[in-house]
Amino acid sequence: MYVCLCTGVTDGQIRDAIYEGCCSYKEVRQATGVASQCGKCACLAKEVVRETLTKIQSAQAAIPYPVEFTAA
C-alpha cells in the first residue's frame, strides 16, 4: 500500500529499509524520502516503522539461547 503519495513510497519499501539496517523513523525518512514533501503521511509512516521494529524485536526475543555457558 502507498504510504506517501508525493514520493511514491510504499509500506513494503519502509519495511525493506528497516530490514536493510534503518533503526529509526529518521533513518527511514532519509533512506526512502517518505514524508519529505507535504508531511501528511508522517503518522502512517511512523506507525509502519514502529510495527516493523516491534515485530523484529519480538522475533529476536524468541530466539532460544543456551541455558548453560561453559568457560573456554
TrEMBL record:
<dbReference type="GO" id="GO:0046872">
    <property type="term" value="F:metal ion binding"/>
</dbReference>
<protein>
    <recommendedName>
        <fullName>Bacterioferritin-associated ferredoxin</fullName>
    </recommendedName>
</protein>
<keyword id="KW-0411">Iron-sulfur</keyword>
<dbReference type="InterPro" id="IPR052371">
    <property type="entry name" value="BFD-associated_ferredoxin"/>
</dbReference>
<dbReference type="GO" id="GO:0051537">
    <property type="term" value="F:2 iron, 2 sulfur cluster binding"/>
</dbReference>
<keyword id="KW-0813">Transport</keyword>
<dbReference type="InterPro" id="IPR041854">
    <property type="entry name" value="BFD-like_2Fe2S-bd_dom_sf"/>
</dbReference>
<keyword id="KW-0001">2Fe-2S</keyword>
<dbReference type="InterPro" id="IPR007419">
    <property type="entry name" value="BFD-like_2Fe2S-bd_dom"/>
</dbReference>
<feature type="domain" description="BFD-like [2Fe-2S]-binding">
    <location>
        <begin position="2"/>
        <end position="50"/>
    </location>
</feature>
<keyword id="KW-0249">Electron transport</keyword>
<dbReference type="Pfam" id="PF04324">
    <property type="entry name" value="Fer2_BFD"/>
</dbReference>
<keyword id="KW-0479">Metal-binding</keyword>
<comment type="similarity">
    <text>Belongs to the Bfd family.</text>
</comment>
<keyword id="KW-0408">Iron</keyword>
